[in-house]
Amino acid sequence: MTPGWRIPMAIAIIAGGIGGIWPVAAMGEPGSGLLAGFLNGVTTSASVAFIWLPPLVAVVLCTQRELGWTSVRVTQGMAFSCLRRRWHVDASLLVVSALVAAGIAGIYGFALGNVFSPGEWSMGTAGARSTTEIATSAVQVAGVFGLTAAVCRLLQARQLALAVLLGSQLVTLVVLAILYFAPVLRPAQALSPWVGLWPLRTSEAMSPLLATTVSRPVGYIITAAWLTCFALGSRFRPDSPLAPGR
Amino acid sequence: MHVLTEARMLAARRDTRAAGLFFLAAVVLGGIRSKSGAIDAGSSVLAVATADDRSWYLPVLGSALVGSLGGAVFYERNRSIYAWIAGSKKSVLALGRVPVGFLLGAVCTVLYWCGRGIAAGISVRLSHRSFEILNDVGLPFRPSFALRIALLSIVAGGFGSLVGAAVRRPLVSLAVTLSLFACLLPLMDSVATRFPGAVAAQSYLPGGTFTTLLESNSGLAVASGLLNFRSGRSAFGGAALLVAWSVAIAIAAVGIPLVRYPRVGSPRRQIVQLAIPVAAILTVAGALLPNIARDALPWYLRPSWLHAKAENQSSPDIVERFVQHLKEGSDVPEAVVPLNRRDPFWKPLVVGEVKVGRQRDMAAPERVPVWVTIPNRSSDLHFQYVFTLEDAADKWRITSVTGAPL
């Protein structure tokens, strides 16, 4: 494993553990099931995928080229397109591994929650998140993965891709923080690729602060449009197995 | 290396110069305004430049970031290892970054005030008033607060350099410093409104200790209202916490080896190395999180409210049933006192289209707004009622109702 994966993986797992602790310990649920701990761990970790997923996936998609391993493999006869497909498969498997690890941490959290705040526990899905929330978090993971892969392919440099991805998240946060006081900024939300994946919406959240006014279906369309733009842009950019020059 | 020489080397870097220009541009652009209380009250450049516009966090944050860059750059290309081999102690190398950080903090403060001055001059020009420079009539300028900002910016620069010396990678040290000082950003106002527990949590971070020192009402001058974080801790407490953070980071900066030999273990070993600290963090979270969360959660996330909602016994549900019984003419068990149905006060609720406020319309669980619309040929009539309830024996009951036409 190349360096740079530990911290995002740790964030994913800790988020999963807190997802397992949360229902009984914080929300005062009378009890939760073992399977619910796993599901809550996976769902909570997936809900915050926009924090840990980009650095984790960027390690797989960009590092081999930067370290020069890709050049060696291409000279050995491997087609670059095959290498790129393999990177995407490896990145997907890494994300699934992170979610499974988060689910296991959720089970640990379920056990901790029942130790520190004893309640009725079972083996089933009592206390699990709703099906809608699980489906939304699955879409979240897929969307964040798609955006990360598209930006990494377009920019072909790990640090620059992370700066763009995380920087755009920060800008989105700032715009939404100001939005309540400056409604004139509403159209600016369409400029953010994260608007479809944003966890807070004014139609669902208690407070309009830091929430987007864009509805979920429209948000998904905007994010898909951005994804398409990045994908088309990477098509026009010449692909090279060599590391970008400094 | 001499402090001034080190600072000159840092200033010669392209990224440092770009950051300085960006910072100056941000201060100037953020400070330009053609209409505000500052311009209207007094037109002098001095008055506008020293007005409170909540940007006084910028030199503290900027100093911390520049200081961390200065601290990390020293370790970036093995200069630290060469100095160590030549005989310098690791503690001297690490703590030697602090004076550089102080100097960078001072430079950042000077840049900030230059930017404020430029922005003030442009603002006065844009307001088409007469261009005066030094007239201080009309605005309260507190030299003590400006002095505190300057001193704390210099301290922040030194603290940032310690962080940079501990992290030793420029980009990562910038990210770490930004996260430690994120509570200085005005963005945190919005976060604190949504998560009230963030106010207490941020007071333990280094940035929070600076807000405590700036905002505390005891020990130093009266707080300026820079940020709305009123920590219960005194200025002495904030200073003690800052010293504790500084000592901890200095220990890390000195203790972390200069030369790291890459040890890439087997995947199983790497997973175990990751699992142990994560399990420790989760165990601590499981022990502490319940108590903190139950006190810090807003009312609409408290377990009692969620149970009531799940069982359709929350205050909006009670009000809905009340209105339904009122319309049907049946008994109204939800009210504390008997109801006089003939009172014209209730007529809009009986005949009109009723919309009971939901959770997101409520400022508190015991007050439920209700809007009534009575269609009319010429123009619809609108009324608003506010139901006040009390939570007795885990059951909401209506105690009073006020209403008025809109």
Strands, helices and their partners?
The complex is a heterodimer of chains A (246) and B (406).
Chain A (H helix, E strand, L loop, with lengths): L5 H20 L8 H14 L1 H19 L1 H7 L4 H37 L14 H25 L2 H22 L36 H21 L10
Helix pairs in contact in A: 1-2, 1-3, 1-5, 2-5, 2-6, 3-5, 3-6, 3-7, 6-7, 6-8
Chain B lengths: L2 H10 L1 H18 L5 H5 L3 H5 L7 H20 L2 H7 L4 H6 L1 H30 L16 H25 L2 H11 L6 H8 L2 H6 L3 H10 L19 H21 L11 H30 L6 H8 L4 H14 L18 H5 L1 E4 L10 E8 L6 E12 L2 E11 L1
The ordered string of helix (H) and strand (E) elements of chain B is: HHHHHHHHHHHHHHHHHHEEEE
How many H/I helices of chain B? 18
Q: Output the structural class of chain A.
A: mainly alpha
Helix content of chain B: 55-70%
The value of Rg of chain A in angstroms is 20 Å
Question: What percent strand of chain B?
Answer: 5-15%
Numbering strands along the chain, what is their spatial order in the largest sheet of chain B? 1-2-3-4
In total, how many domains does the architecture of chain B comprise? 2
Q: State the end-to-end distance of chain A.
A: 24 Å
Q: Could you give a short account of the major beta sheet of chain B? A: 4 strands, antiparallel
Strand content of chain A: under 5%
Number of helices of chain A: 8
Query: Tell me about the biggest sheet of chain A?
Result: none
Radius of gyration of chain B: 29 Å
Shape of chain A: flat
* Overall strand count of chain B: 4
